[in-house]
TrEMBL record:
It comes from the Eukaryota. Residues 16-149 form the Aminotransferase-like plant mobile domain. The lineage of its organism: Eukaryota, Viridiplantae, Streptophyta, Embryophyta, Tracheophyta. This is Serine/threonine-protein phosphatase 7 long form homolog. InterPro entries: AminoTfrase-like_pln_mobile, MAIN-like. Pfam families: PMD (PF10536). GO terms for biological process: meristem maintenance. It comes from Abrus precatorius (Indian licorice).
Length: 237
């Protein structure tokens, strides 16, 4: 999702997603992530380095990407007619083929909620567009795989990232889902010599991790050989 429609910023802020939405287009260093995955252990959900074990925590979720980490757990199963629920929330009733299992396909959201101008006729339509935008943000970025303000979206995102890290250690797995930008930001913050540059955070209105977006200096073409010799012996700040 490129660019955040200004018409729904207030809705995103109210729902607690105004911070994380700014990181949705974060460029990915796949080689750094691969090097980290090689140090991940399923038994402890930690990165095993020579000096000890380290992991990503709720603090990283809250500070780096600005997601809520307290509140109700995102665990409840949806009961009732799925199509009716979507019609009530989004104003459009999906057909049966718009669902995959219990989930709504992102392609359906992309088809019906791409341009805010089509939904900018009244406040109810804007609210519905904001809901669809948040669903796309969750599916495309936060819980990527192939809530409201009172819910702990950060807890769900961290648990999902742990799950995807565990799955990615399987030699048959060719990719990783979840908040992969958080892996990079966590590594850069904990181990400064991996940083593409040393940036100062001067915008308290945006997540701490968003400061990396102003940098255009780090390359997407770093090789794994650059990271592998460094990571096992890392000593964090």
């Amino acid at each position: 999702m490129e660019g955040v429609p200004v018409e729904i910023i207030s809705h995103l802020t109210l729902a607690g997603f105004a911070g994380v939405v700014q990181l949705a287009c974060f460029p990915i260093d796949r080689h750094l992530i691969t090097a980290l995955v090689e140090r991940w252990r399923l038994e402890t959900h930690t990165f095993h380095m020579v000096p000890g074990e380290y992991t990503i925590t709720f603090q990283d979720i809250a500070i780096q990407i600005g997601l809520r980490i307290d509140g109700k757990a995102v665990i409840a199963a949806v009961r009732g007619n799925k199509a009716q629920i979507m019609e009530d929330l989004l104003g459009i009733r999906p057909l049966d083929d718009a669902f995959m299992g219990s989930g709504l396909k992102l392609s359906w959201l992309d088809q019906h909620f791409t341009h805010v101008a089509m939904h900018n006729h009244n406040e109810l339509q804007l609210t519905r567009f904001a809901r669809a935008y948040i669903l796309r943000l969750i599916g495309d970025f936060m819980l990527a795989d192939h809530s409201s303000r009172e819910y702990s979206g950060g807890a769900a995102a961290l648990a999902f990232l742990y799950q995807k890290l565990c799955m990615s250690t399987n030699i048959k797995c060719s990719g990783i889902g979840g908040l992969t930008p958080l892996l990079m930001m966590w590594a850069w913050d904990r181990f400064p010599f991996l940083q593409p540059n040393n940036l100062v955070h001067t915008r308290p209105d945006i997540p701490y991790g968003a400061r990396w977006l102003v940098s255009q200096s780090y390359s997407r073409h770093d090789t794994r050989s650059r990271h592998r010799p460094k990571i096992p012996n890392l000593v964090p700040l």
